[in-house]
Every structure is written in C-alpha cells, then in structure tokens.
Amino acid sequence: MRVVFFSYGTRGDAQPQVALAAGLEQHGFRTRIAAPENLRSFIERAGIDYAPLHGNSQEILESESGRRWLESGNVAAFMKEAAAISARIDPEVFRCGLEAARDADAIIGGTLAEDLAFTLAEYKRIPIAFAHTIPMETTGDYANPLVTLRNLPLRGLNRATFALFRVLAGRMHARTLAQFRRTLDLPRRSGTVVSRAAELDVSVLQLWSQHLVPHQSDAPPGTVTTGFQRLPQSVRDRLGEKAPPEDLVRWLDAGPPPVYVGFGSMPVPSLISFAQDILEIGRSLNVRFALSPGWNEIESVRHLECDGLHLVPPVDHGWLFQRCVAAVHHGGAGTTAASLEAGIPTVVCSFFADQPFWGARVERLGVGAHLPRVKMNRQSLRNAVEKALTDDVRRRAREIGAKLRAEDGNARAVEALVRILVPAGQGFQKPIETSA
Questions:
Q1: Would the pLDDT of 219 be above 80?
Q2: Residue 191 Cα distances to 74, 76, 157, 173, 425, angstroms
Q3: Domains defined for the chain, CATH in brackets
Q4: Mean of pLDDT values over 36-50
C-alpha cells in the first residue's frame, strides 16, 4: 500500500511527516512525501521517497514581501500575500501533486496542502487523513489560533472563529482550485476543507501532546491527539545528525550550560546586530549563548564567537537542548516540543502562523515566556530570558518535560493511521463520495 504525504511548509512541517512515513514503512507500507523543492535533500537523506511540489518555500519566506509580512506578524497580510503567490504557482503545484499521487492508495494532507490532498483523494477515490501540527478542527473549547489567542466567553464564538478562518483561507486557492477540480471533472466545492474534517468524514491526527493542548471535549471520533513526533534514530543517522560537531562539544564542556537561540527558517533582518545584542544580554545575566543562525548567513557573525557565544550548525535539538539551561526560538511546533521535552524553559519569539499560539501556550503553562518578534529588542529579550531562568519556571519546565518524555507520539500516530487506512476486516477505508 502506497501512502503519499502532502505539505507546503518548511522543514518543521515536513519533519513530522518524515517520522510518520518512517513508522509506516516499518509496518510494510510504501511511502512518499510531496513537498517544495527546497526540502528534497532533507526528505531524501532521511530515506523517504520524495516528489516535488513546484516552488521553494525558503525563497518565498526570504523574499522582500515574505520578510515584510513575517516582520509584521499579521495573519491578514500573510493570507493576502499567500493568495498572490498561489495565483502564480498553484497550477504547477497541482500538476506536480497529481503526478506525486499517481500510484497512491491513500493520502495524508498536511500544512497548506489540505485542499490539494483532499481533491486528489476524491479524484482517485482513496482514503485520506489530515495530519495537523496546530489545532484546526472546529471546537467550542477555544478560538482558532490563527484568528485570535484570546479566550472568548462563549463556545459559539469560539466555533465562529473557525468559520471565519475557513473564509479567509478559502480565498487563497479559490479560483485556481476550482479550475483544477474542473480539469479532473470533479464538482465544485465552496471554501477550504481545513476545519471541515468532521463534516467531510475525514480522520485527523493532531500531532501534539495533550499536556500542552488538551484533546477537544467536542472532538469527533475520527480525531486523535497523538503526542509529538520524534525522528527515529535510524533516520537521524541517515541525516548525519548522530555525532555533534567536536568544537561545539568542547565549548559546551568548557563552561556552564548555555541558553540556545535560534529562529530556524525565520529570517533575522540583521544577524550581526542580533548577535551583538545577545552577547550583551549574556554579559548582563552571566549566561552563555549557543546561537543557531538557521537560514541566515553564518559567516557574517563568525568573528563574534567567544567564550560567551558559540555558533551552532544544524544539529539534533534533542541532543543539544539536554545540555542547555533554556531555549529561545521562533515557536515552531517541532522546536517547541523539543525544548519542552528536554525539560528546559522556553522563550518563544513568534513571527507568524502557529508560532504565537505555541508562545501563548508556553506562557500559560508557566514554562517560559512569549515575546512577539515585533516587540523584541535587547531589553525585552533580556527580560524574557531572565524570567525563563527563574526557579519556578525551571521547576515547571522539568515537570512538563517528564510528562512529554513519557509519551510515545510516534507509536500512537502510526497505530491510528494503520487503523484509519486499513480498517480491520474491511480492506481500505470507504472511498470519498464525489458530491458537492
């Protein structure tokens, strides 16, 4: 049985799919991940069959317009820009998607690819499930995290925010998706499929821990909160992430545990200025910093390395965070999970999308601080780090870390997928009905 995953995000979005694919292959499934072209190397080095989706998510984020809405943190600006990008690239992305699904027996839809995944499954009349790293299913327990982080007073208002998000998100692909569905001789559908899983009878894997976001009280039976996904060691070995750099190990051994700082795929306007800021923060708080430049140019700050600052290349967060006293990052779901699982306080400097949501969760649980990127400067960052290093926050971080380490999100997710895709005694899941 061939299972094809679809995602159009960054490595943080693709990595849980790699973990799921590796788990399914251990159960005899054949898998493939369709993702933007800049993720080809990561997926192929992980040992998973790769199919290209036209475009480059890194180039989009690093473009002038991409940097502009990342800096603003404005969801409406993101939606507007995403719609403009979609109008240009969707036809080719959809063509690539059709090719990626050529021999699919089942499809898993992920970040920003749910509509494409659902359309392809509908066309091929094969099972589909969604795999989400942020709450997207309609609930009265809380508001849609991409609409507001406020606790609304009525369950009906919370549910309404999911309907609002469907309207906004539906505009991203409305015209191009309608054209694509016509070429496949499929009926027109109104709006996006995101947050309509229950209505469409699609099962959903929620790839986070209930210790951070409790399972919804009104979740339909097909929704499973699995726990966070970890890359299996065999995959990390193939990625070359087994042995950390010797100079990093020597630096770590030479002094007290540092504070990790890294924003992954999020661009920093001036890495030099930022590195100088954290050097000053380190001196004032008497802490060392391990700085990961992410997609930013590492050589531009190489001359600033010293006892108090070390530059970190791509490395296994699970290994590094165990040797840190706290972590400062952009708040991607995977990085948030890794830092909390290590039992260390977390400072989320959120840019956009799901990052403010994870920052708010960290702050609400008392295991760190949330500092939106638009409010970040030397003083505000210093204050956030100082707060994260207090005894109470460190104690609570250790407590939640122990709970997360006790979960096996990989096993629970794979078990759920096997049950969804191959129900006992029924062969494949009931095909999707092609109705408007």
A1: yes
A2: 22, 17, 20, 9, 35
A3: 2-228+408-421 (3.40.50.2000), 242-405 (3.40.50.2000)
A4: 96
